[in-house]
């Protein structure tokens, strides 16, 4: 039965909306109901990175020039307006003023039915508190496998932001059904999403958990995928692990998973493509044939991308052997032929990325094509702005930073710009090179993740300030592997450096305040002495939870430092259960 929300508490409403994708608020004064719906919508939209759209049923007939129509006659106009745009692209939709007094709840049922297969969130405000819930359709989020499929598509497109809400709902659906296999796949996709976001430790922990569960339930294809993703974690830090990728390929082949074997073969080839003497031309051709056998356009596109990149970099201008292990001819004629072949492959990759609707691959291919083909770049004076726009569309700020670097060229001191240094491991950035023409040779692994800035990473203005003269906030998780609905302890400590004035005297009476930015309780929520503070963190769903800690001087009310930390919560026992909702707590509202 679909939930019909009667609560007026913000956190509970937000949890229900994110879990089921639907929240119905009944009765109450119009202004109060509308304000509550707006607050919940903003909370969910901010967390998921989505737009909010509002529709007032009472205004629908007036806007269409058909005032005076009955509520049921207006229903078609409202539902079609939603189907016309809001259902197609993920967003948060608020429909207020819905009359629910009709015997069959026609408009309410029509709205919920219209969003049944959508990834959008639907909030409905009804004008009658006595609607007949029997008329509502069954919970649209019960199919955990369908949710996983949609989340995987978002990850494939390079847009992990939209995958998070789907995965949270999928975990609950599989837990309620007692499906360990489905829950293992959900945990695996959580790990993959964390890898895409550059959260290596969270990804490693989740992928290890998924791999062990796959083994326990005899899911060999899942185990192979988990082994491959774990190997790609090493590649993302600039240290490829070809042996682990080869093992993933063997596992896929043993399980009869031809598509998985093709992907493992591709990443194994990419990990070794820059080795002197490696026959990358032959291997890329073999991988391309594998993907075509299973009709995987996305895999074919990435194969063409990396094949073109290897050809373009093997022209003798960047210190790579001109033959590239292919036995090709050297000299100017050979270089020109390789560049023409690389252009052809880049164009083929672009076409396939567009067909597969993968903006992540399209943006990286556009960037590399522009850098490796001067003629292509100069024909389009807005090349950088166009590529930056595609990266921006999927929220990939790291990709935009690489475009900025390509436009600006190498820095006089040779150090990477702040926007890259605060996101990528030093080992990866150390492999960044430059051509004689001043174009960057971007590490291959840079396109495997979309890392966010690391908390506390010093900004350029702080670099002249010795590290030992600063005070740091140290957070320690005292309980391993947090699970839903079980408190975990977090210790906070202010640690002054040796050169800081506080290093030789007792700390002043500072206070620390903790705030949960997601579905979790944290106690105490208010300021406590920062010297050895301890908080109890109680999450209410699996996945990543972000907490904000603020250290203040209570005497002056000055905020001295504010840090945010992500804590990964693993699913609890996979037996059938529903997460226990926390008690309403008005103080949990965010400003």
From TrEMBL:
<feature type="region of interest" description="Disordered">
    <location>
        <begin position="566"/>
        <end position="591"/>
    </location>
</feature>
<feature type="region of interest" description="Disordered">
    <location>
        <begin position="443"/>
        <end position="468"/>
    </location>
</feature>
<feature type="region of interest" description="Disordered">
    <location>
        <begin position="315"/>
        <end position="339"/>
    </location>
</feature>
<feature type="compositionally biased region" description="Pro residues">
    <location>
        <begin position="573"/>
        <end position="585"/>
    </location>
</feature>
<dbReference type="Pfam" id="PF13424">
    <property type="entry name" value="TPR_12"/>
</dbReference>
<protein>
    <recommendedName>
        <fullName>Tetratricopeptide repeat protein</fullName>
    </recommendedName>
</protein>
<feature type="compositionally biased region" description="Gly residues">
    <location>
        <begin position="319"/>
        <end position="334"/>
    </location>
</feature>
<dbReference type="InterPro" id="IPR011990">
    <property type="entry name" value="TPR-like_helical_dom_sf"/>
</dbReference>
């Amino acid at each position: 039965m679909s939930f019909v929300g009667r609560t007026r508490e913000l956190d509970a409403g937000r949890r229900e909306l994110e879990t089921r994708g639907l929240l119905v608020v009944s009765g109450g004064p119009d202004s109060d109901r509308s304000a509550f719906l707006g607050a919940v919508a903003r909370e969910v939209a901010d967390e998921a990175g989505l737009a909010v759209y509002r529709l007032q049923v009472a205004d629908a007939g007036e806007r269409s020039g058909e005032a005076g129509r009955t509520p049921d006659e207006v229903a078609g106009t409202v539902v079609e307006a939603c189907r016309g745009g809001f259902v197609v692209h993920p967003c948060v939709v608020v429909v207020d003023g819905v009359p629910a007094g009709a015997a069959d709840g026609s408009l309410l049922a029509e709205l919920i039915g219209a969003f049944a297969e959508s990834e959008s969130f639907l909030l409905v405000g009804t004008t009658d508190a006595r609607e007949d819930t029997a008329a509502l359709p069954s919970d649209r989020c019960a199919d955990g496998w369908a949710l996983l499929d949609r989340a995987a598509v978002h990850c494939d497109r390079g847009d992990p932001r939209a995958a998070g809400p789907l995965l949270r709902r999928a975990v609950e659906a599989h837990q309620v059904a007692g499906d360990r296999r489905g829950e293992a796949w959900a945990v695996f996709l959580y790990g993959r999403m964390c890898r895409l976001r550059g959260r290596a430790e969270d990804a490693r922990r989740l992928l290890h958990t998924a791999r062990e569960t796959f083994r326990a339930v005899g899911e060999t294809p899942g185990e192979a995928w988990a082994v491959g993703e774990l190997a790609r974690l090493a590649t993302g830090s600039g240290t490829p692990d070809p042996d682990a990728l080869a093992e993933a390929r063997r596992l896929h082949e043993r399980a009869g998973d031809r598509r998985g074997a093709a992907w493992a073969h591709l990443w194994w080839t990419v990990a070794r493509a820059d080795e002197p003497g490696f026959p990358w031309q032959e291997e890329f051709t073999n991988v391309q044939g594998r993907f075509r056998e299973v009709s995987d356009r996305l895999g074919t596109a990435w194969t063409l991308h990396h094949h073109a990149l290897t050809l373009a970099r093997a022209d003798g201008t960047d210190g790579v052997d001109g033959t590239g292990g292919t036995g090709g001819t050297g000299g100017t004629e050979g270089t020109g032929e390789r560049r023409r072949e690389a252009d052809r492959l880049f164009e083929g990759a672009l076409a396939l990325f567009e067909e597969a609707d993968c903006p992540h691959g399209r943006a990286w291919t556009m960037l590399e094509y522009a850098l490796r083909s001067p003629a292509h770049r100069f024909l389009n004076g807005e090349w950088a702005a166009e590529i930056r726009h595609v990266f921006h569309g999927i929220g990939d700020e790291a990709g935009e930073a690489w475009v900025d670097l390509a436009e600006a060229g190498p820095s006089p001191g040779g150090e990477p710009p702040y926007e890259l240094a605060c996101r990528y491991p030093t080992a990866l950035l150390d492999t960044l090179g430059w051509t004689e023409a001043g174009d960057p040779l971007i590490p291959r692994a840079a396109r495997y993740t979309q890392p966010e800035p690391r908390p506390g990473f010093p900004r350029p203005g702080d670099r002249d300030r010795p590290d030992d003269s600063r005070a740091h906030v140290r957070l320690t998780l005292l309980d391993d592997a947090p699970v839903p609905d079980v408190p975990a302890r977090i210790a906070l400590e202010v640690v002054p450096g040796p050169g800081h004035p506080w290093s030789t005297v007792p700390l002043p009476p500072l206070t620390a305040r903790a705030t949960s930015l997601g579905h979790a309780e944290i106690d105490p929520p208010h300021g406590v002495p920062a010297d050895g503070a301890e908080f109890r963190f109680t999450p209410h769903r699996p996945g990543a939870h972000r907490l904000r800690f603020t250290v203040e001087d209570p005497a002056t009310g000055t905020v001295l430092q504010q840090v945010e930390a992500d804590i990964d919560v693993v699913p609890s026992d996979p037996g059938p259960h529903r997460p226990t909702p926390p008690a309403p707590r008005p103080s949990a509202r965010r400003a």
